[in-house]
Write a structure and sequence with these properties.
By secondary structure, the protein is α/β, with parallel strands linked by helices. 37% of the residues lie in helices and 15% in strands.
Protein backbone atom coordinates (compact mmCIF):
# COMPACT_ATOMS: atom_id res chain seq x y z
CA UNK A 1 0.00 0.00 0.00
CA UNK A 2 1.26 3.54 -0.72
CA UNK A 3 2.44 5.55 2.26
CA UNK A 4 0.05 8.18 3.58
CA UNK A 5 1.87 11.53 3.82
CA UNK A 6 2.14 12.92 7.32
CA UNK A 7 1.04 16.52 7.79
CA UNK A 8 3.83 18.56 9.39
CA UNK A 9 2.94 19.88 12.82
CA UNK A 10 4.10 23.45 13.42
CA UNK A 11 6.09 23.13 16.64
CA UNK A 12 5.22 26.17 18.77
CA UNK A 13 7.61 25.19 21.56
CA UNK A 14 10.58 25.09 19.21
CA UNK A 15 9.64 28.45 17.67
CA UNK A 16 9.22 30.01 21.12
CA UNK A 17 12.69 28.82 22.11
CA UNK A 18 14.16 30.27 18.93
CA UNK A 19 12.54 33.64 19.68
CA UNK A 20 14.10 33.54 23.15
CA UNK A 21 17.55 32.82 21.76
CA UNK A 22 17.20 35.57 19.15
CA UNK A 23 16.16 38.07 21.83
CA UNK A 24 18.90 37.15 24.33
CA UNK A 25 21.58 39.55 23.00
CA UNK A 26 19.20 42.48 23.24
CA UNK A 27 18.19 41.54 26.79
CA UNK A 28 21.84 41.44 27.84
CA UNK A 29 22.61 44.70 26.07
CA UNK A 30 19.77 46.40 27.95
CA UNK A 31 20.91 44.83 31.23
CA UNK A 32 24.44 46.13 30.67
CA UNK A 33 22.96 49.63 30.31
CA UNK A 34 21.02 49.23 33.57
CA UNK A 35 17.73 48.79 31.70
CA UNK A 36 16.99 45.10 32.10
CA UNK A 37 13.33 44.49 31.11
CA UNK A 38 11.06 44.48 34.16
CA UNK A 39 7.55 43.09 33.88
CA UNK A 40 4.94 44.09 36.47
CA UNK A 41 1.96 41.77 36.90
CA UNK A 42 -1.13 43.11 38.67
CA UNK A 43 -3.09 40.39 40.48
CA UNK A 44 -6.52 41.03 41.95
CA UNK A 45 -7.70 38.58 44.59
CA UNK A 46 -6.70 34.93 44.95
CA UNK A 47 -8.15 33.23 41.89
CA UNK A 48 -6.25 29.98 41.21
CA UNK A 49 -6.38 30.48 37.43
CA UNK A 50 -4.73 33.88 37.87
CA UNK A 51 -2.10 32.29 40.16
CA UNK A 52 -1.35 29.67 37.52
CA UNK A 53 -1.07 32.33 34.81
CA UNK A 54 1.37 34.38 36.88
CA UNK A 55 3.51 31.35 37.71
CA UNK A 56 3.74 30.55 34.03
CA UNK A 57 4.76 34.10 33.14
CA UNK A 58 7.37 34.14 35.91
CA UNK A 59 8.94 30.89 34.70
CA UNK A 60 9.04 32.14 31.13
CA UNK A 61 10.41 35.57 32.06
CA UNK A 62 13.16 34.02 34.17
CA UNK A 63 14.40 32.02 31.17
CA UNK A 64 14.41 35.20 29.08
CA UNK A 65 16.35 37.19 31.69
CA UNK A 66 13.35 39.43 32.38
CA UNK A 67 12.60 40.55 35.94
CA UNK A 68 9.06 40.10 37.27
CA UNK A 69 7.32 41.88 40.11
CA UNK A 70 3.81 41.11 41.30
CA UNK A 71 1.50 43.81 42.63
CA UNK A 72 -1.45 42.45 44.59
CA UNK A 73 -4.72 44.35 44.87
CA UNK A 74 -7.44 43.29 47.31
CA UNK A 75 -10.80 42.63 45.60
CA UNK A 76 -12.54 45.00 48.01
CA UNK A 77 -10.41 47.85 46.60
CA UNK A 78 -12.55 47.59 43.48
CA UNK A 79 -11.76 49.00 40.07
CA UNK A 80 -10.56 52.22 41.67
CA UNK A 81 -7.86 50.31 43.54
CA UNK A 82 -6.75 48.54 40.36
CA UNK A 83 -6.56 51.87 38.53
CA UNK A 84 -4.39 53.30 41.32
CA UNK A 85 -2.03 50.32 41.08
CA UNK A 86 -1.80 50.61 37.30
CA UNK A 87 -1.14 54.36 37.49
CA UNK A 88 1.69 53.81 39.98
CA UNK A 89 3.27 51.27 37.63
CA UNK A 90 2.78 53.56 34.62
CA UNK A 91 4.71 56.24 36.52
CA UNK A 92 7.47 53.90 37.75
CA UNK A 93 10.46 54.26 35.42
CA UNK A 94 11.88 50.93 36.64
CA UNK A 95 8.87 49.08 35.22
CA UNK A 96 9.10 48.59 31.46
CA UNK A 97 6.07 46.32 30.93
CA UNK A 98 2.70 45.81 32.63
CA UNK A 99 0.01 43.16 32.37
CA UNK A 100 -3.20 42.58 34.26
CA UNK A 101 -3.67 38.95 35.34
CA UNK A 102 -7.03 37.46 34.36
CA UNK A 103 -9.63 36.46 35.32
CA UNK A 104 -10.69 39.38 37.49
CA UNK A 105 -13.25 39.14 40.29
CA UNK A 106 -16.90 39.41 39.19
CA UNK A 107 -18.02 42.94 38.47
CA UNK A 108 -14.64 44.21 37.24
CA UNK A 109 -14.25 45.13 33.57
CA UNK A 110 -11.04 43.64 32.19
CA UNK A 111 -11.11 45.61 28.96
CA UNK A 112 -11.70 48.94 30.67
CA UNK A 113 -8.90 48.34 33.15
CA UNK A 114 -6.44 47.11 30.52
CA UNK A 115 -6.95 50.41 28.72
CA UNK A 116 -5.54 52.16 31.80
CA UNK A 117 -2.09 50.68 31.06
CA UNK A 118 0.38 53.03 29.39
CA UNK A 119 0.44 51.85 25.74
CA UNK A 120 4.26 52.01 25.83
CA UNK A 121 4.19 49.38 28.61
CA UNK A 122 1.25 47.34 27.30
CA UNK A 123 3.07 44.06 26.64
CA UNK A 124 -0.16 42.22 25.80
CA UNK A 125 -0.87 44.71 23.02
CA UNK A 126 -4.50 45.27 24.03
CA UNK A 127 -4.54 49.06 24.45
CA UNK A 128 -6.53 50.83 21.69
CA UNK A 129 -3.40 52.69 20.61
CA UNK A 130 -1.53 49.44 20.04
CA UNK A 131 -4.50 47.74 18.38
CA UNK A 132 -4.72 50.76 16.09
CA UNK A 133 -1.17 50.06 14.97
CA UNK A 134 -2.50 46.99 13.14
CA UNK A 135 -4.71 49.26 11.04
CA UNK A 136 -2.21 51.99 10.28
CA UNK A 137 0.92 49.87 9.96
CA UNK A 138 2.67 51.52 12.92
CA UNK A 139 3.83 48.30 14.49
CA UNK A 140 4.63 48.72 18.14
CA UNK A 141 3.38 46.37 20.85
CA UNK A 142 0.88 44.23 18.97
CA UNK A 143 -1.55 41.62 20.40
CA UNK A 144 0.50 38.59 21.42
CA UNK A 145 -1.76 35.89 19.99
CA UNK A 146 -2.08 37.69 16.66
CA UNK A 147 1.71 37.92 16.51
CA UNK A 148 1.96 34.21 17.32
CA UNK A 149 -0.39 33.34 14.46
CA UNK A 150 1.65 35.37 11.99
CA UNK A 151 4.92 33.85 13.22
CA UNK A 152 3.55 30.33 12.77
CA UNK A 153 2.34 31.17 9.27
CA UNK A 154 5.89 32.30 8.51
CA UNK A 155 7.13 29.03 9.94
CA UNK A 156 4.90 27.16 7.47
CA UNK A 157 6.65 28.97 4.58
CA UNK A 158 3.33 29.72 2.93
CA UNK A 159 3.76 32.89 0.83
CA UNK A 160 0.73 34.98 1.80
CA UNK A 161 0.73 37.46 -1.08
CA UNK A 162 -2.30 36.77 -3.27
CA UNK A 163 -3.41 33.80 -1.17
CA UNK A 164 -6.90 33.29 0.30
CA UNK A 165 -6.85 33.62 4.09
CA UNK A 166 -9.93 32.82 6.17
CA UNK A 167 -10.16 33.84 9.83
CA UNK A 168 -12.88 32.12 11.85
CA UNK A 169 -13.51 34.37 14.85
CA UNK A 170 -13.71 38.15 15.05
CA UNK A 171 -12.46 39.01 18.54
CA UNK A 172 -10.65 42.28 19.18
CA UNK A 173 -7.42 40.61 20.30
CA UNK A 174 -7.18 37.72 17.82
CA UNK A 175 -9.52 37.63 14.83
CA UNK A 176 -9.58 41.30 13.89
CA UNK A 177 -5.85 42.05 14.35
CA UNK A 178 -4.90 38.82 12.56
CA UNK A 179 -7.09 39.86 9.62
CA UNK A 180 -5.36 43.25 9.46
CA UNK A 181 -1.88 41.71 9.65
CA UNK A 182 -2.82 39.30 6.88
CA UNK A 183 -4.00 42.21 4.74
CA UNK A 184 -0.65 43.89 5.34
CA UNK A 185 0.92 40.80 3.75
CA UNK A 186 -1.30 41.21 0.67
CA UNK A 187 -3.49 38.19 1.41
CA UNK A 188 -7.16 38.25 0.43
CA UNK A 189 -8.94 37.98 3.77
CA UNK A 190 -12.37 36.70 4.78
CA UNK A 191 -13.49 36.97 8.42
CA UNK A 192 -16.18 34.56 9.62
CA UNK A 193 -18.22 34.71 12.83
CA UNK A 194 -21.27 33.18 14.49
CA UNK A 195 -23.63 34.75 11.95
CA UNK A 196 -21.69 33.52 8.90
CA UNK A 197 -23.91 31.39 6.65
CA UNK A 198 -22.42 28.13 5.31
CA UNK A 199 -19.11 28.29 7.14
CA UNK A 200 -17.70 25.30 5.24
CA UNK A 201 -18.13 27.11 1.92
CA UNK A 202 -15.87 29.88 3.23
CA UNK A 203 -13.25 27.67 4.91
CA UNK A 204 -12.88 25.48 1.82
CA UNK A 205 -11.49 28.47 -0.07
CA UNK A 206 -8.69 29.07 2.44
CA UNK A 207 -5.02 28.60 1.65
CA UNK A 208 -4.44 29.80 5.23
CA UNK A 209 -7.14 28.97 7.78
CA UNK A 210 -6.98 30.55 11.24
CA UNK A 211 -9.55 29.41 13.80
CA UNK A 212 -10.14 31.19 17.13
CA UNK A 213 -13.66 30.71 18.47
CA UNK A 214 -13.48 28.38 21.48
CA UNK A 215 -15.61 25.55 20.05
CA UNK A 216 -14.00 22.09 20.27
CA UNK A 217 -13.72 20.30 16.94
CA UNK A 218 -15.59 22.97 14.99
CA UNK A 219 -13.45 22.51 11.87
CA UNK A 220 -13.61 19.04 10.33
CA UNK A 221 -11.62 17.60 7.41
CA UNK A 222 -14.37 18.15 4.85
CA UNK A 223 -14.24 21.88 5.67
CA UNK A 224 -10.54 22.23 4.78
CA UNK A 225 -9.00 22.77 1.35
CA UNK A 226 -6.38 20.10 0.58
CA UNK A 227 -2.94 21.59 1.14
CA UNK A 228 -4.10 24.44 3.38
CA UNK A 229 -2.09 25.70 6.36
CA UNK A 230 -4.29 25.54 9.48
CA UNK A 231 -3.59 27.56 12.62
CA UNK A 232 -5.68 26.42 15.60
CA UNK A 233 -5.90 29.11 18.29
CA UNK A 234 -8.59 27.34 20.31
CA UNK A 235 -7.96 26.11 23.85
CA UNK A 236 -10.87 24.08 25.22
CA UNK A 237 -11.12 21.77 28.22
CA UNK A 238 -13.24 18.70 27.45
CA UNK A 239 -14.15 15.80 29.75
CA UNK A 240 -11.70 12.90 29.70
CA UNK A 241 -12.04 10.28 32.46
CA UNK A 242 -8.62 8.84 31.55
CA UNK A 243 -6.82 12.12 32.33
CA UNK A 244 -5.63 12.77 35.91
CA UNK A 245 -7.56 16.06 36.02
CA UNK A 246 -10.66 14.59 34.39
CA UNK A 247 -10.27 16.89 31.40
CA UNK A 248 -7.95 17.34 28.44
CA UNK A 249 -7.12 20.34 26.28
CA UNK A 250 -8.23 20.36 22.65
CA UNK A 251 -8.44 22.96 19.93
CA UNK A 252 -11.15 24.28 17.63
CA UNK A 253 -9.87 22.04 14.81
CA UNK A 254 -10.49 18.31 14.79
CA UNK A 255 -7.09 16.50 14.73
CA UNK A 256 -8.27 14.47 11.71
CA UNK A 257 -7.84 17.65 9.65
CA UNK A 258 -4.20 16.54 9.45
CA UNK A 259 -5.30 14.19 6.66
CA UNK A 260 -5.89 17.20 4.37
CA UNK A 261 -3.75 20.08 5.63
CA UNK A 262 -0.24 20.89 4.46
CA UNK A 263 0.63 22.06 7.98
CA UNK A 264 -1.25 22.23 11.26
CA UNK A 265 -0.63 23.60 14.74
CA UNK A 266 -1.08 21.08 17.56
CA UNK A 267 -3.10 21.83 20.70
CA UNK A 268 -1.41 22.09 23.11
CA UNK A 269 2.07 23.01 21.91
CA UNK A 270 1.21 25.21 18.96
CA UNK A 271 -0.04 28.79 19.30
CA UNK A 272 0.15 28.86 23.12
CA UNK A 273 3.94 28.77 23.64
CA UNK A 274 4.48 31.30 20.84
CA UNK A 275 1.93 33.66 22.40
CA UNK A 276 3.90 33.63 25.66
CA UNK A 277 7.13 34.22 23.73
CA UNK A 278 5.55 37.17 21.93
CA UNK A 279 4.46 38.71 25.23
CA UNK A 280 8.04 38.44 26.51
CA UNK A 281 9.39 39.74 23.21
CA UNK A 282 7.05 42.73 23.61
CA UNK A 283 8.52 43.23 27.08
CA UNK A 284 11.99 43.43 25.53
CA UNK A 285 10.79 45.87 22.87
CA UNK A 286 9.08 48.02 25.52
CA UNK A 287 12.30 48.16 27.56
CA UNK A 288 14.01 49.85 24.62
CA UNK A 289 11.32 52.51 24.46
CA UNK A 290 8.40 52.74 22.07
CA UNK A 291 9.40 50.53 19.14
CA UNK A 292 8.74 51.08 15.47
CA UNK A 293 8.47 48.85 12.42
CA UNK A 294 12.15 49.44 11.65
CA UNK A 295 13.33 48.71 15.18
CA UNK A 296 14.87 45.75 17.00
CA UNK A 297 13.98 42.18 16.21
CA UNK A 298 11.25 42.71 13.64
CA UNK A 299 10.14 39.53 11.95
CA UNK A 300 10.02 39.43 8.13
CA UNK A 301 6.27 40.05 8.21
CA UNK A 302 7.05 43.62 9.35
CA UNK A 303 9.63 44.27 6.68
CA UNK A 304 7.33 44.60 3.66
Amino acid sequence: MPEVPVTPLLDGRALAERLRVESAPEVERLAAQGRRPRLAVVKVGSNEAAHSYIRGQQRGAERWGIEVQVTEVAPEAGERGVRRALKALNDDARVTGILLALPLPPGMGARTLQHEIDPRKDVEGVHPENLGGCLYGRYGLLPCTALAVMALLEESRLPLRGKEAVVVGSSEIVGKPVALLLLAQDATVTVCHKFTADLALKTLSADALIVAVGRPGLIRPEMVKPGAVVIDVGINAVPDPTAPSGTRIVGDVDPSVASRAAALTPVPGGVGPVTVAMLLRNAVLAARGLPSSDDFGQMPLFQS
